[in-house]
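Quick one, tokens below:
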């Protein structure tokens, strides 16, 4: 039996709705889904996650247990999302550290790996909350984001090669259920670091990096060498020194100086 799903037409955010439902919950795991959220938030304070009604997967996975001691929760959840999407778009998905889902799409202008979704993990009162937002259709993001965003539909069509057919994308509820099931596995797997590095966007590439909050953090530049056992990104400077960072944002690929 899969994880129970509570489906709402519209909420402020699935994360906040989940918090309301935790109190007195008779079950140890459930998923909150919504067709629309009016105040979704991203990993970085001050950023919002928006999605058009019916064009996005908007969910929060809620698991009760001792997950606060599990290392790299958000990175493991990223692997769960990739597993849930892998049948739709095999070999076309990466994770931009720490938790942006990137999809490879083909466009006459502005193609390549673009942001398909993201996630946010929190622990509270013995619960793990994993908020996940994915663009399922192009309508999920505004035209102003076209150079930076993509959707599962576009990535799946591009994966078919030079003669693509209309993509058959699973319903949001099916993807939510698959993500929840995959999360239960990845939260306990020992090989998560190796798997993450295989899926890591820009591994081995020279990048610009903002240390800490992107709004006021210091700028750095180096080559991504992977992650450590705690999930920190490893950045190698020109002189050979490697430094690990808990927080920050990859701001550009140095080779093209094109912001992802």
């Amino acid at each position: 039996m899969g994880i129970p799903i509570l489906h709402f037409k519209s909420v402020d955010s699935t994360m906040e709705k989940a918090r309301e439902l935790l109190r007195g919950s008779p079950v140890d795991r459930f998923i909150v889904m919504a067709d629309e959220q009016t105040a979704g938030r991203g990993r970085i304070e001050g950023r919002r996650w928006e999605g058009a009604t019916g064009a996005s997967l908007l969910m929060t996975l809620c698991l009760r247990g001792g997950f606060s001691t599990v290392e790299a929760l958000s990175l493991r959840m990223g692997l769960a999302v990739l597993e849930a999407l892998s049948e739709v778009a095999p070999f076309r998905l990466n994770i931009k550290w720490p938790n942006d889902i990137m999809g490879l799409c083909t466009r006459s202008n502005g193609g390549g790996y673009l942001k398909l979704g993201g996630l946010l993990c929190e622990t509270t009162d013995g619960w793990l909350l994993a908020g996940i937002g994915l663009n399922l259709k192009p309508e999920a993001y505004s035209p102003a984001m076209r150079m930076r965003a993509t959707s599962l539909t576009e990535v799946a069509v591009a994966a078919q090669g030079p003669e693509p057919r209309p993509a058959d994308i699973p319903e949001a509820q099916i993807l939510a259920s698959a993500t929840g099931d995959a999360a239960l596995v990845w939260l306990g797997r020992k090989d998560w670091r190796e798997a993450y590095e295989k899926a890591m966007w820009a591994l081995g590439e020279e990048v610009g990096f903002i240390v800490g909050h992107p709004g006021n953090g210091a700028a750095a530049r180096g080559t991504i060498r992977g992650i450590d056992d705690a999930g920190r990104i490893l950045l190698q400077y020109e002189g050979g020194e490697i430094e690990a960072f808990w927080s920050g944002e990859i701001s550009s690929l140095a080779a093209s100086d094109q912001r992802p």
